Amino acid sequence: MDNCPICQKPADSTFLGDHDHRWWCAQCGKFIISGTAAQLLENQRATLDVGKLSQVVRQHPRDTEDWMCITSYNLNELIAAAG
Ligand SMILES: [Zn+2]
After folding, report:
1. Per the structure, how many domains does the chain have?
2. What residues sit around ligand 1, an ion, with C-beta below 5 angstroms?
3. For 7-27, what is each residue's pLDDT tens digit?
């Protein structure tokens, strides 16, 4: 198990290639995060309410097969919703 890039609790991950990872986190739900978004998230972690962000991600509507995609395009939107 690795640590979830959002809440940092142990979670299952699968590398999808092209820096994308798929995460199955008990806390945040199922999501796919791009390498860029993961890096941006890491850079901002100190100033983030990660508990709140985790909640926003968990409650976010899912696309096909219950996965949600987090990219550099919607990450700021999610962070804003958590702030
Ligand atoms: Zn998580």
Report:
1. 1
2. 4, 6-7, 25, 27-28
3. 999 999 999 999 999 999 999
